[in-house]
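User: I'm putting together a small comparison set for a docking exercise, and I want a reference complex before I start. The sequence is below, and the ligand is flavin-adenine dinucleotide. Could you produce the 3D structure with the ligand included, as structure tokens?
Assistant: Of course. I'll restate your input first, then give the structure tokens for the complex.
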Amino acid sequence: MPTFVYMTRCDGCGQCVDICPSDIMHIDKTLRRAYNIEPNMCWECYSCVKACPHQAIDVRGYADFAPLGHSVRVLRDEEKGTIAWRIKFRNGKKDMELLAPITTKPWGEFIPQLADEAAPSKEMRDSHLLYNEPKYIRLDEGGLHTLESNGLTLKAGVYY
Amino acid sequence: MGYKTIIEDNIDVLVVGAGLGGTGAAFEARYWGKDKKIVIAEKANIDRSGAVAQGLYAINCYMGTRWGENNPEDHVRYARMDLMGMVREDLAFDMARHVDSAVHQFEDWGLPLMKNPETGAYLREGRWQIMIHGESYKPIVAEAAKKSADKVFNRICVTHLLMDDAKENRVAGAVGFNVRTGNYHVFKSKTVICGAGGASNIFKPRSVGEGAGRVWYAPWSSGSAYGLMIDAGAKMTQMENRIVLARFKDGYGPVGAYFLHLKTYTQNCLGEEYESKWFPALTEMVGKEYLDTEGQHLSHKPIPTCLRNHAFISEVNAGRGPIHMVTMEAFQDPHLEEIGWHNFLGMTVGQAVLWAATDVDPKYENPELTTSEPYVMGSHATGCGAWCSGPEDVSPDEYFWGYNRMTTVEGLFGAGDAVGGTPHAFSSGSFTEGRLAAKAACQYIDDGKAAGIRVSETQIEDRKKEIYKPMETYTVGSNEVVAGTVNPNFINPRQGLDRLQKMMDEYCGGFGVNYMTNEKLLQIGLKKMKIFEEDLEKVAAEDIHELLRAWELKHRFRTSESVFQHTLFRKETRWPGYYYRGDAMKLDDENWHVLTVSQRDRKTGEYTMEKAPCYHLVGENEE
Ligand SMILES: Cc1cc2nc3c(=O)[nH]c(=O)nc-3n(C[C@H](O)[C@H](O)[C@H](O)COP(=O)(O)OP(=O)(O)OC[C@H]3O[C@@H](n4cnc5c(N)ncnc54)[C@H](O)[C@@H]3O)c2cc1C
Ligand code: SF4
Ligand code: SF4
């Protein structure tokens, strides 16, 4: 829920400012540290929390419906390809650690550079196929579905 | 004001908004346009922008023809049934026949897709959904877009599309400003693919105060796709078809995996199953074709999302709320419990925060559900958006004007939420639509359709003045008062947003009136909207950040106006549970088995409404 920044941990690097989709993490000009300038436009998406190199950002549930005293912390590691969460309940009865993979491959290396691919042929251009198709649709020799191949016709109006 | 004008010229494909649709477009455009100049203009940072900023735990649209699971027409049938008959089946079929190739690429790129250990196929959450560890879904597709694009301009709020001064009704690029530097950016382009997403925060949200950002669709989904395209004169379709979501209360955590994978179910405060008792009356309202209580039981056809909402809303109104999600059984299995939590952490962290804050442990307590305020979008269980051409080999004449996913404005294409009549595309389908639009845009250029585009200096200068006007209004108006936010000369963007949300809620069928409206209410609402539009000329921005909010508000306003017009036009209750026309409480196939199409006149602001035929591809029942 809305974020806040711990004074002693933030060094003003601006990573959170760079990533926040809502444009609400800004650097305070006097303190030269980041803060949330518009908490009621925060989606608690945790993008800034994940991006902060010093774990300086935390989240305190929205004042209008979340009581104080809970914690949901996160560590995202691109090198290891994992994200680790820790959830602590207000009453202390639950303290959970959860881990998930975020990628199965080294970052970006397996995404093709389409500029280097062979140029599409005229047939390909004239067809309804996209890059890597038809192969990637079914990963077999089958072609693209058409109305004809699927035995379909379009009819106007209510008929069922 | 010392803002620079920065002109990016000779662009071939300009992607406005790089969420799932826009990244798909930028990626694919490079393949069909090897030497074309591809540029992205994005309001946030494409690594974490749009509805998928926090990630997703499922890909909700995957056919699995590879595993012999479904064919595209099965998905068309499903989407049509869920939307009470109203979809562009040509577009839906086209999306469905390509979507698997996008998903298979995601796997190649490193997106962790879960597998069924027995079959080796992707792990299904439901018939159309597959489960993923999708925390990095957005950074991964952003990487693909970055590899293809010549330039990515992050932090540009696009405010207007540029129109060709040489030819009527042809797009010529876009303009906007940098939300950090304040600089004015002009993008002159032969084609534009609009992927600027759907609209949250146009109806009054249930959460207020600090929690006002806790909306279901992201608070930065500013209706820009609609605002931009409507202002450019593009025809829109199905804008009345807003969506209401049944979600976990307050946190709006998703329920899909809970229903489908964890097999949790709902009950009223007395612990009773309540849905089925509302169905006979509902069948009276919508007809047997759409809800056949006995037949449904035999055919196992899913009940349309809106009708399930209707049962929910009716049960609560009857005094038997709250509706609970029964999690206590499933959560006894530690594996399922973990999935339940991961599901939130992967796409709606706020729900986990809320349960931690309120000590709700779904293993020992069944959490409450609620129905949300309405949203306007086109890729989830609803199909608002631009009226676009379909592909040549599938579409009938009324639906085809040359280039796949091209709007009625030449050279202007759409993807994802921007395209109307294509519900149930979700993340993968939006990405796919972007790819389809990109191929078509390249072909449009190669066919010479963009020749001779001219953008006058006057157009560029006029837009510039318009964009910064809220800052001038602020400076001039503030001098008159001592301090504070109350000013007789202007309103600020937040005040404007509050007013918009109140009008939408009370006159256009928000949660505050139990999703009910009628002709009288809509007409009063439209009258108030007209006056609001005059006040919007006086919206004031203290700084560049507020200028962003001012333009988001203007886009939300235009989206809302269109929703009003469409809701007024469709004189029936097509989707009980999404909204009700109190003066026409029945579904009326005789007069309204049609798609609604609107156009706003660019000069006069008048709307023209028309009915377009609804074409069907597949029979009611599966063979
Ligand atoms: C909570 C939640 C759960 C979901 N769960 C799932 C799921 O499990 N599976 C699934 O497949 N789908 C899911 N979806 C749906 C999916 O996220 C959307 O269908 C998809 O993201 C739509 O793609 P889009 O490109 O149309 O919009 P978006 O992805 O929202 O992209 C819009 C882009 O436009 C940019 N933009 C907006 N305005 C402007 C402007 N004025 N100028 C420049 N740029 C602008 C935005 O910053 C953003 O980058 C979920 C969505 C939500 C919110
Ligand atoms: S990313 Fe962290 S350290 Fe850097 S400015 Fe933001 S809060 Fe401070
Ligand atoms: S949680 Fe998301 S919306 Fe909130 S400040 Fe951080 S990045 Fe921005």
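The pocket of iron/sulfur cluster (ligand 2) is lined by residues A 5, 10-16, 33-34, 51-52, 54, 56-57 (CB under 6 Å). The mean pLDDT of chain A is 95.
User: Thanks, that's exactly what I needed.
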